[in-house]
Amino acid sequence: MKRFDNKVIVTVLVFLFVFAIRLPHINNSPVEQGDYWRQSDTEAIARNFVEDRFNIFYPQFNYDGPKPNYVQLEFQITTFLIALLYKAFGYHYYLARLVPVLFFLGSSVYIYLIAKTYYSRHIAWFSVIAYGIMPMNIFYTRAIMPESAALFFFTGAFYYFIKWYKEEKLSFLYLSAVFTCLSVSQKTPTVFIGIAMIMMLIKKYGFRFLTKGHLWAFLIISLVPNVVYMIWSRNMAEFDFVTNIGLLHIIPKSLKAFTEFSSYKFAALEILSAVSVGLIIPAVIAIVNAKWAEDHPMLFWTLSMLLEVIAIAAVIKLKYYFIFITPIAAIWAGKTLGKVCDNNKAVVSVFAGLLILTLINYESCKPFFKEITNILKQAEVIQRYTDEDDLIIIGTMEPTLLNQSRRSGWRANIKYYEDIPTGAEKEINYLIEKDAKYFSPLGGYIYGDDGSYKKYLDENFEKLGDEKYYIYKLR
C-alpha cells in the first residue's frame, strides 16, 4: 500500500508541477508579443458569443466591417468554453487562459497513459515533465488559442486507438474516432495521425483491414462531421479573409515542400526550438535505439507527424503548427530519461538537470509573455473617445486594436477587398459612407503608408488624444 501511495503522490506532484509553471502571466491580456493577432481574435470571438450571438456555430470577428461578421474557422470549442466562463464570472483574462491550460493538463494525462501503456510508470512521469517544459508548450498551451484543445483530442485519439489495437474493444475504437474527429475540427493537420493508424492496421491485418465495417465506421465518424462543418461554415461566413485558407495557401505548396532542402532545414530548426536542445537529444537517442516489437506504434506516430511538419508546418511557417510533434518528442525523451534512472544513483542528477532545463526554457519564452503596451494604450484612447457601437478604422494590418478596444470596423490601406477603393481620400470617404466615425493609427503608424495617407488625415480631420496616442474624428 505504501508503494502505491508513493506512486500516486509522485504522479500528482508531476501534474501539479506542469500546472504551476503555467500560472505566471495567467492574467495577461491577449496582446502579448507571442501571436497577439491570433490570441486577440480568439478572445474576441468568445466575447462576441457573450455579447452578440451565443451560438457555437456562429463565430464572428470584429473586422472587416460592421457586425455580424461571421467567419469560417475551426469548430469553436475553446472560445465557447471561455464564453461560458465569461458569462458566469465576468470578463477576466485568467479565465480565458485557464481553458487551454486545463486542456493541456488533459493531454498530459494521455501522454502519461500512452507512455505507461508501452513502457513504464516512471517513463510516463518523465514524459509528462518533458512535455510540460518544452518551450513551445510553456507559451502556447496557456495562450488564448485552440492549440491545447487540439492537443487534448489528438493525444486522446491515439491513446484510445492503441487501447483498441491491444484489446479490440469497439468502444475504444469509436471513442478514438470521436477524439480524432474533434482533433481535426480544431486543427486540420492533426488528420495526419490517420497515417499512423493505417500503418498500424496494415501491421495488424494486412490490407484485409479494408474489408472490416467497423473501421469504415471509424473513418466516417472521424471525417464526415468535419466535412459537413466545413461546408456549413463556408456558406455561413460573411468574412473572406481566412476562408479556405488551407486550400488557397497550404495544399498547393505541400508536395513541392518535400523536394526542397530548405523545408527540411526550416523544420529541423523549428522542432529544435519547440522541443529544446536539452530534450531533443534524449528523444533522438530513444528513436535511434528503438526496437520494432516494442516501439512500432510510436515509430508510426512519429513518421506520420514528421510528414505533417514538412507538408503543413514548413509551408505555412507559423510556429504553433509544430506543436503536434511535442507529444511524440516528449514520450521519446521520457523513455531515455526513464531508462537512465533505472540506475537509482542517477535519479537526483536527472531531476536536477530537468529543473535547470525548465528555468532555461522558461527564460527563452519570456519575450513572448511581454505585453505590447502601445497597443494597450491606443486601445484605451479608442475606448475613451468612442462609444461601443461606433465603427472604427484602424491603421494596422493586424486587427488587435479593434479587438482590444471592443470595437468593430475596418483595417485601412490593406488593399484586399475589391469593393473598397484604394487611396486615402477615396477609401476614407467610402468608409465614412459605411458609417465609419473614427480613424485610429498606432503611434502615427498606418499600414503601407508612404506618408500621403497620414497627411490626408492630418489636413482634413480633428485629432482626439495626445501627441503620441490619438484618433481622428471622421464625422
Would you kindly provide a written description of the structure presented here, covering whatever features stand out?
- With 475 residues, the chain is mainly alpha-helical.
- It folds into 2 domains: 2-30 and 72-369, no CATH class; 373-473.
- 65% of the residues lie in helices and 4% in strands.
- It contains 21 helices and 5 strands.
- It has a 5-stranded mixed β-sheet, sandwiched between helices.
- Strand 1, helix 19 and strand 2 form a beta-alpha-beta unit.
- Helix 7 (147-167) runs parallel beside helix 9, helix 8 (170-186) runs parallel beside helix 10 (213-236) and helix 13 (261-275) packs across helix 15.
- It is globular and about 75 Å long.
- The termini are far apart.
- The model has no long low-confidence stretch (mean pLDDT 93).
Order of helices and strands: HHHHHHHHHHHHHHHHHHEHEHEHEE
The number of domains: 2
Low-confidence runs (pLDDT<50, min 5 residues)? none
Q: Count the beta strands.
A: 5
SSE blueprint and pairings:
Layout: H1 2-20, H2 36-51, H3 77-89, H4 93-118, H5 121-133, H6 135-140, H7 147-167, H8 170-186, H9 193-205, H10 213-236, H11 245-249, H12 251-257, H13 261-275, H14 277-288, H15 292-316, H16 326-340, H17 347-369, H18 373-385, E1 391-394, H19 400-405, E2 408-411, H20 424-433, E3 436-440, H21 452-460, E4 462-465, E5 470-473
Parallel strand pairs: 1-2, 1-3
Antiparallel strand pairs: 3-5, 4-5
Helix pairs in contact: 1-5, 2-3, 3-4, 4-5, 4-7, 4-16, 5-16, 7-8, 7-9, 8-10, 9-15, 12-15, 13-14, 13-15, 14-16
